[in-house]
């Protein structure tokens, strides 16, 4: 596989992931809240005010923003694939930044979902906790990748110096 074709497939993957994220933010979050409202009785519905619904929806939109920032950074990293300059300290730093952003976002997402679960405002917390677990695995993978990209950059600099 050439660098150009790899660049194309990475960019296509980023676009597909971004479209899935926009779909979740635009359709799933509002739809899930309408399902919660439908399942409530009239007395429970008065407890769940519109402000609470908008607060919950705003929280999920806010914790989605860092995921799109990570996709923007991945887009910039994919440009390095095309130029065949992937193994640099700069790219390792960008990958490490993605892992850090994801880890912080997962912490906020976990705390928020736990609070909403305690307040009985979130019926889909179980699904979101699996999403958190998947995000933790991805964050660890990104940290490991960052470490090895930095090592590869060191080796590349050493080999360029000896030639």
Quick summary of this structure?
The chain is built from five helices and no strands.
Q: Low-confidence runs (pLDDT<50, min 5 residues)?
A: none
Q: How many domain units?
A: 1
Radius of gyration: 20 Å
Largest sheet: none
What overall form do the CA principal axes indicate? elongated
Mean pLDDT: 86
Number of strands: 0
SSE order, one letter for each helix or strand:
HHHHH
Structure class: mainly alpha
What topology does this entry show?
Layout: H1 3-39, H2 42-47, H3 50-82, H4 89-118, H5 125-162
What does this structure look like?
By secondary structure, the chain is an all-alpha fold. It has one domain. It contains five helices and no strands. The chain has helices at residues 3-39, 42-47, 50-82, 89-118, 125-162. α4 packs antiparallel against α5 (125-162). The chain is elongated and about 70 Å long. The mean pLDDT is 86.
Name the features.
163 residues; mainly alpha; 88% helix; 0% strand
């Amino acid at each position: 596989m050439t660098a150009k074709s790899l660049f194309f497939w990475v960019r296509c993957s980023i676009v597909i992931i971004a479209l899935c994220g926009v779909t979740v933010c635009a359709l799933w979050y509002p739809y899930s809240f309408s399902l919660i409202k439908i399942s409530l009785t009239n007395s429970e519905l008065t407890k769940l005010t519109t402000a609470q619904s908008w607060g919950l929806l705003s929280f999920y939109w806010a914790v989605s923003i860092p995921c799109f920032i990570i996709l923007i950074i991945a887009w910039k990293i994919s440009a390095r694939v095309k130029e065949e300059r992937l193994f640099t300290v700069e790219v390792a730093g960008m990958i490490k930044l993605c892992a850090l952003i994801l880890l912080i976002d997962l912490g906020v997402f976990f705390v928020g979902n736990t609070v909403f679960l305690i307040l009985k405002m979130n019926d889909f917390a179980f699904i979101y906790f699996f999403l958190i677990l998947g995000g933790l695995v991805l964050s660890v993978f990104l940290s490991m990748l960052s470490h090895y990209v930095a090592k590869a950059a060191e080796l590349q600099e050493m080999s360029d110096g000896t030639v």
